Amino acid sequence: MSVILSSTNQIRKSNEIENPKGFLQFLLLHKNILLELTKFRITFFVSVTTIVGFIFYNGQINYDLFIVSLGVIFLAAGASALNEYQERNLDGKMQRTISRPIPSGRISSRYALIATSLLIIIGSFILSLVNVTVLLLGLFTLIWYNAVYTPLKNISPFAIIPGSLVGSLPPMIGWAAAGGNLFDVRILSLSGFLFIWQIPHFWLLVLMYDDQYKKAGFPTLSNIFSHSQIENITYLLMVVLVFSSFIFPVLENSYSIFTIFLFIVFGFLSIFFTFSKSKDKQNNIFRNKFVIINLYVLSILLLITAETLI
Fold it and tell me: N or C: which end of the chain has fewer CB within 10 A?
């Protein structure tokens, strides 16, 4: 009897999702599904780097900042949802991703694609209200992420190198929305900084779930390098990342002594903790380094934004 009731409930839920009216009601009642489908935490960070790029140009907060941030949120949400649709079969093979909305069956592929299309259309329209450059940068980022980087992940463990371009473009979108020249050395430095960060960020994420990625069929670095070699590569990239951040105080002569001091302290502390050895489990070591690198990048973005506003 309980089995029959369970099956009936599943059929009813499935019909609600497959029916357009039921689908809209379903999303209103289950907002978490939409947040998961669009990888909201990643989407939010993308909008944050857009805001940093906007403020970095002239330190102003105005209506255009709100519009471009909103447009980027919608477009990034659409790109993330499209990525989940593209990788739905692979996600079903990994413990880390099997509970995502599509592989878990909480939303159908069809309506995930409809939601994706709506988000992309809305995001593109909003960005077009700012200027053509902003719209083109947004669409290029979308295409590069979903048509280049996502398929490339199935082919090479080094896909993140060209894929890092995706993470470096949102600040440029913000900068262009504020009226900045895309060839200005300041925005190129900020985008370059985020480009470098993306590489160890993604590699460490993959290594934290190395067995799962292998099981799903993704090529990983551990097929090419030993764990000790990967740790050395991560350390080298962290050093490059830290020293690349030192260009910001050099370019901005107005930075206070205290801010410059924080740049140096945060940088060398991050290098120290990334390099420090541990007898912990390998995936915990990679997780710790993952957290350190991300906290460092957030710290630098906060310093840049605060110094520009002040």
Answer: N
